Amino acid sequence: MEPGSGVGRRSPSSSSSVSLSHAAVAVCMSLPLRRCSHRTMSTLSQTKELFRRADAVCFDVDSTVIKEEGIDELAKFCGVGDAVTEMTRKAMGGSVSFKTALTERLSIIKCSREQVNKLITDHPPQLTPGIRELVDRLHQRNIKVFLISGGFRCIVEHVATQLNIPLDHVYANRLKFYFNGEYAGFDESQPTAESGGKGKVISMLKEQYSFKTVVMIGDGATDLEACPPASAFIGFGGNVTRQQVKERCSWYVTSFGELMKELEKI
Questions:
Q1: Which cofactors are reported in the record for this sequence (predicted)?
Q2: Is 94 helix (H, G, I), strand (E, B) or coil?
Q3: Domain spans of the chain, in order of start
Q4: Which of 96, 115, 139, 156 could disulfide-link to 172, CB 3.0 to 4.6 Å?
Q5: Is 62 a known active-site residue?
Q6: Is 60 a catalytic residue?
Q7: Of 187-201, 220-234, 245-259, which range is least confident?
Q8: How many alpha carbons fall within 13 Å on the CB side of residue 105?
Q9: What's the average model confidence in pLDDT over 147-156?
Q10: Domain 12-263 CATH assignment equals 3.40.50.720
Q11: Residue 38 predicted with pLDDT over 50
């Protein structure tokens, strides 16, 4: 039976019904890597300048704002860690399409709502050191902060609340469950459920808010490919190093303290 078909005894419900404290698990997958176009490719000094005068800064979540790759943690919890971890590695490197990696990994895990809730209760996501201070400093400078994740909205909203980021600044996917709590897929209507989704969100933000300069920060291929339309991309390696991402960005940092220091130059 297909989720949402309305056939049979079960019908799916969105994971939005899960409370923020029992959030669904974030996922961050990626697409084939590509550089920013020649027109927008920036040098190190240009990227730093764009960051200092940004109208908005967008962060990836898994392995960037938080330490974990949430889908791997969920897989381990459900007893299928080995089967999923290798797929995550390929996805983050850009060798598997976003939607394929997401669909296949979740079909292996087939997590119930109860399992997701228990995982988050027992193993809540851990913020990366320095992110709280960096977000506070950006807010102090009236720079808008957004979370754009290939993961799931409930956990990202939970993280956003900890960082005082408005929930309408969160863009992520949603897990779906049947009314009996069994896994029923994910909401494919979200822009982040498709290839190039983070770039689509950034384009929308630029149009909606009339932003001139938007910077994307993240560890994976989906973050890198969001430039353009992002004005600049900053690679983050504080939790994990994606060698292909590191090689393709003009500014690669391993701690949020490096970004804090750059803001002090204003």
A1: Mg(2+)
A2: coil
A3: 12-263
A4: 156
A5: yes
A6: yes
A7: 187-201
A8: 32
A9: 84
A10: no
A11: no
